[in-house]
Amino acid sequence: MTTHTDLPLLRRTVTVARDDGHVVLRHMRDEITLEGVAAKLFTTVQTDLDGKNQIDAIAKKASAQPARLRSLFEQLEKAGVVAFLQGRDDAALMTGIEFHALHHEYCEHWLEDVYRHPFWDRIMNGTATRSQVLGFAFEKYHYIEAAFEHMGIAAANSTPEMMPHLARHFIEEYTHGDIYRKGLRSLFPDDVVLRSQPLPSTRALVNYLNESAQRSSFAYYSGNELLQMTENSSGGAGDAVDTFYGAMRKHYPYTDKLIDSFIAHTKADQKLGHADAFLLMCKSVPPLNRREVNDALNVAKNMAEHLVLFMDGIDTFYAHFPMVPRLPCDPLTE
Amino acid sequence: MAPIQERYRSKRIYEIKPTDGGVELRLSDRIVELGKQEYGWYQKVAEWLPSVRGVADLSRDLGMDEAKVPKFIEALAGTGLLLETSSGPQTMTGLEFHARFSSILGSWLSEAFSHPFWERMMSGKGSARLFTGWLIELYHYTKNANRHMPLSCACAHEKPIKQLRAKHYAEEWNHYHYFMKSLKALGFTEPQIAESVPLPMTLALSNFMRQAAREDILAYSICSAVLEGTTTDRGQYNPYYQKAGELYGVPKEAIAPIYAHLDLDVQYQHSDLFQDILKHVPQMSRERASRVLDYGHELVEHIWMWTDNIEKYYEVESNAVPRRPFDVRVD
Description:
The complex is a heterodimer.
Chain A: E1 8-10, E2 15-19, E3 22-27, E4 30-34, H1 36-45, H2 55-62, H3 66-78, E5 82-84, H4 96-110, H5 112-115, H6 118-124, H7 130-145, H8 147-156, H9 163-173, H10 176-184, H11 190-195, H12 200-215, H13 217-232, H14 237-251, H15 256-271, H16 277-284, H17 290-320
Antiparallel strand pairs in A: 1-5, 2-3, 3-4
Helix pairs in contact in A: 4-16, 4-17, 7-10, 7-17, 8-9, 8-12, 10-15, 12-13, 12-17, 13-17
Chain B: H1 3-7, E1 8-10, E2 15-18, E3 22-26, E4 31-35, H2 36-48, H3 55-62, H4 69-79, E5 82-84, E6 91-92, H5 94-112, H6 116-122, H7 128-143, H8 145-155, H9 159-172, H10 176-185, H11 190-194, H12 200-215, H13 217-229, H14 234-237, H15 239-248, H16 252-268, H17 273-278, E7 284-285, H18 286-314
Helix pairs in contact in B: 5-18, 7-10, 7-12, 7-18, 8-9, 8-12, 10-16, 12-13, 12-18, 13-18
């Protein structure tokens, strides 16, 4: 008889490090250290943890006690580094609330690459160029202004459960680009701000939101929530954002009014209670099957990668092509 | 904004080369040489033109009497570095537009391929891993033609243009098989590649083409023409594959399908398609021409950023190749 613990799999995203006879397994923010016999046993069977081998077969190959192996794998499952492929019904449903918790756990992990991006340090230590600093303001403006696009598309294509949330979100957000625009108008004429062109990487982020919004309103918001998490967090990311703006003001005094607009926008978002928006959506959707869970999490993961790309664009593109603002073409300018 | 700021704007500079006494600025139609001081002044003017700062501010920045500033700006316009916004026709025919496009395509392509990645790969400082990554992304990019080419047919309004776009799609839709063949020669299995996930910037290229298709068939067609422009001359744009093959030990079986694909594109004469489409456009307003050019140039920038994304991802040894989709059961 096959039990749910028969086919152990070392999760693909686990990193394995060895040090002085210890084995350290890391998955997202979790870490477990194996020592002594457990470390040796894990090392012996590691290559067989591919979700295709039964515990009894692994034990036989490793000349180990099946019960002992099973116990080790169950501990590793609790630590989040091992999964059991069978025994989990693929058609099993996950409630929206369960999804919300899982989503936040993964998103916090995926956002680490965004928070580690070298561009933040460049601003903090004052080595970013004028183009990168002003470019950062323009790209933030373009991204926020694009609420017209992706939030509009999302509301227009939403499921019945998601519609009230997405409609409310659009109505609350569509004027937020003007908050950034006000900041940019301290340095550039309104017409120049309105006609300026986003970087391809910013366009990539917006278009990914647009395409997701057209395809699946829940998956779209799963991705959008990851973006919201960068601004709505209290403590953690929130504190880091305040420190960042402080350093930006110090090194780049001409951006004073721009920073005022960034902060005004963050406060406007927080006042609207957007931090709870996704939780409310998750409460209202019907239970999700594994395919829907994977779809929504893939969009969130891709969104994190698009956000890193957004940062790469500001950092790298403005370093190579320092023209800012980026004016549209004319037959005679090219 | 001072009237003089509304009167002039900068033209695009494609390359800045230092010389003994100053710099050489390359525009699409000329090279302008400036001394170091003049170049500094030009930079200040270019920065000032789209700003809210007044003439007095610029005069102070330049260390120049305010009364002399307009003359100086006029002189810069005379060199071709600045454009007088009221100059030029307000309408043009489709073929006149094509002539304009053809005159700048070379500059655009040089910008698209100015990423340091190419020099790195051609000088032997790249790797087989980077080459493989580039091929995987090319596979996705080519397969993703199915996300935008049929959409462009659906969104076109004029029958002859619909026909031309549909013919192009019919000739291109399955070209991703060439890249699959190359990747199989490198040891990948078909499911490994088919189920893999493109980089965000690879996906962005097809999403941008979808955006263009929905906006204006000419916006879509100029993007398509820029992409076809990269395949018109094997000698100019594609020595990369052969050289990379030699430098990084890429087997001939992996290179041959890529050249077969390039040769097929040349045989189909896809680079003439934009001109054929524009023959059906009797008149374009300057606004439409500008918007279409915006799309073309944004596509150029997408190519540059795509290259950057490929280099940054595939140069990290610990990153998965090919990229797998996230699965909650196993990740």
